[in-house]
Amino acid sequence: MLPLAQLLLFCGSLHSVNAQRQTQPSFNISVPIDVADNVSECEPLQMKLLPLTNGSALDVVPPFYVLSFELGGIGRADFLGADPQNLTWTVPHPQGTQLLFYIVDGAGNMSDEGLSAVLAGNTTNCHPTQVQSNFKVSVDSSQVATCDDLIVAISGGTKPYTVTVVGDTVLNYTLGANDDSFDYVNQIAPSESFIITASDAKGQWAVGTNLISSVGSTDLSCPGKEPTGLSSSSSSSDKGPIVGGIIGGIVVLLLAIGTATYFYIKRRRDTRLSAANRRQMPFDDEDVSPYVLPPDSNMQMQSLSTPLFARGPPSSVTVSESASGTLESAMLHNQRVSRNPTLLSGEHISSHSGSVYSTPDVYHVTTRLRPMTEKERVMAREEEIRRQKEVVQHVDADDILDVPPEYKERAGRPSGNSAARI
User: How far does the signal peptide extend, from start to end residue (predicted)?
Assistant: First the structure.
């Protein structure tokens, strides 16, 4: 088996993946008729070269080599000799193998292809020692339409790889230093078959030569499409930022939706609580009314008005001890209040007689929340009658009077028989 430098003489120099060398057949192979379709393993096969057209001169350059490819197996190159009319090839492939082979001269010119089946021979000692190789090539389909893509995957061996497409012409593509796959655009005529194989930088052929059928249109121009070398590592790294960007965008979107939902729910909850608090309030800003303490106080205060009897009715109508005035005027004021029941039904008790000031009534209503019911009016009247019955009678008195609290003018008066006893 020859090294790669000799093997690829048929295609001249190597080319980048975006360039290709297409080699058209320059001569024909002539083999005995009885072995045209079948050859025997480890037996010599006699061949000679003929011009493409009858009557033309044979234009070839020695030496000559045979390139043979086992379908699904491995490719190899063998030396044939220098005489184009006397070339001998001992078939090194085992029986049962389907072969596709070409003859290449020293200038890189190639013959048309030969396709044969290998039959059992008289010996097997010509087979090379089987070497386990991790250098493999595979395709993603055994049939491809014209101008469609065919992905060729390569593993093992030594980079850079060279992909060889062998049909009615031979195409060679040298991949980039990091490429380990190849996107081939099919430009083989429909109804034709071709093989794809690969070799590495050390001249080793890959295991897994593939036979592919071409179908589809006869238009082989394929505008805008070019074969491309691919790197699995670069492909993964190129997809990484895209995937990361998509995931990052989704996370940001979810965070935005979550934040908006939180503030929306919080706002609705605060609105409901505010409305509930307003319904529970017994008064508002209009229910606040000012009042002034008796004259001996310089403080100005406010009290909140509440409904009548909200905390129970007052037990009695009293007059401030700090107020100045006569006992008689206080009694007259007390009688006036007692005789005026309307003051107990929600009216203001805010009056003064002369210099006597009444204590501000914390039970009056400045802004009434609702009118009194009939039941409340009856209860208020019964309370008034009960209060009128609660009287204090002096031991030495003939008449029944309501006694007001002690006034300043009586403070310090000595007790005696004329003093009231309770």
Answer: 1-19
- DSSP string for residues in 17-42: TT--EEE-EEEEEE--GGGSSEEETT
Q: Which H or E run includes 101?
A: strand 98-104
pLDDT digits (tens, 9 = 90+) for 93-130: 888 988 888 898 888 888 888 878 888 888 888 887 76
29 C-beta neighbours (distance < 10 Å), count: 19
CA distance 326 to 317: 17
The percent of residues above 70 in pLDDT, for the chain, comes to 59
Q: How crowded is residue 63: how many other Cβ atoms within 10 Å of its Cβ?
A: 15
Q: Given pLDDT bands bounded at 50, 70 and 90, which one contains residue 22?
A: low
Ramachandran sector of residue 129 (left: φ over 0; alpha: ψ -120 to 50; beta: rest): beta
State the DSSP string of 213-263.
Answer: EEES-S----TT---EEE-HHHHHHHHHHHHHHHHHHHHHHHHHHHHHHHH
Measured in degrees and rounded to the nearest 5, phi and psi for residue 280 equal -85, -15
- Global confidence as pTM: 0.48
Edge-to-edge strands of the sheet including 181-185? 136-139, 149-155, 181-185, 228-230
Q: Are 120 and 41 in contact (CB under 8 A)?
A: yes
Burial of 153 (0-12, 13-18, 19+ CB in 10 A): middle
Return the structure tokens found at 4.
């790669």
Residues 6 or more apart in contact with residue 319 via CB below 8 angstroms: 330, 333, 334, 356, 357, 358, 359, 404, 405
Parse the chain into domains and list their residue ranges.
4-232, 288-410
CA dist 180 and 155 (Å) reads: 7
- Say how far apart CA 114 and CA 111 lie, in whole Å: 9
Nearest Cα neighbor of 207 from 76, 101, 66 is: 76
Do residues 296 and 359 touch, judged by C-beta distance below 8 A? Answer: no
How many C-beta atoms surround the C-beta of residue 77 within 10 A? 23
Q: What is the largest CA-CA distance in the chain?
A: 175
What is the C-alpha radius of gyration for the chain, rounded to an integer number of angstroms? 60
